[in-house]
Amino acid sequence: MATVGRNIAAPLLFLNLLMYFIVLGFASWCLNRFINGTTNHPSFGGNGATMFFLIFAMLASVLGIVSKFLGSNHLRAWRNDSLAAAGASSVIAWAAGLQADKHRRAQRVETEAGLYSSRYGPGYRDTDHYGGAAADPMHKGTPAPVTGTRV
User: Fold this and answer.
1) CA separation, residue 124 to residues 93, 118, 119, 120, 137 (Å)
2) What is the pLDDT of residues 75-88, one digit of tens each?
3) Cα–Cα distance, 81 to 78 (Å, whole number)
4) What is the DSSP track for 10-60?
5) In which domain, by residue range, is 19 found?
6) pTM of this structure
7) What's the structural domain count of the chain?
8) Nearest in space to 65 (alpha carbons), one of 124, 110, 128, 23
């Protein structure tokens, strides 16, 4: 029965390793674009939590890759000491993944607060600048004629 678990775990470890490499590559690419300031495309949003999210996503993916290597070493050796190393590294990678998810949720909350706020939402219009809600922003007009000056 133990060989069935080992036979199933090997392809799953490899698939998870590939997914960690994809996350690492995508997070590195996004962080590079974010640092260079080339994020002015509408599909690439960013706020205060974006930098932290990308850093923690890269950290979690590197720790996950190390955890998968230690897991494959445990599959090869199949001893208690290799199980302890693989288990400890997987718990650390899982904790880093939770930290990255916390920053992703903070980023989503900041974005939704900006979208659904009546002050800075999609229908935002600074009514104080235009003279009230009923004023036309294109034709402001003058409040009173200017007298006594000729230039």
Assistant:
1) 42, 7, 6, 5, 13
2) 889 888 889 999 99
3) 9
4) HHHHHHHHHHHHHHHHHHHHHHHHHHHT---STTS---TTHHHHHHHHHHH
5) 2-40+49-122
6) 0.64
7) 1
8) 23
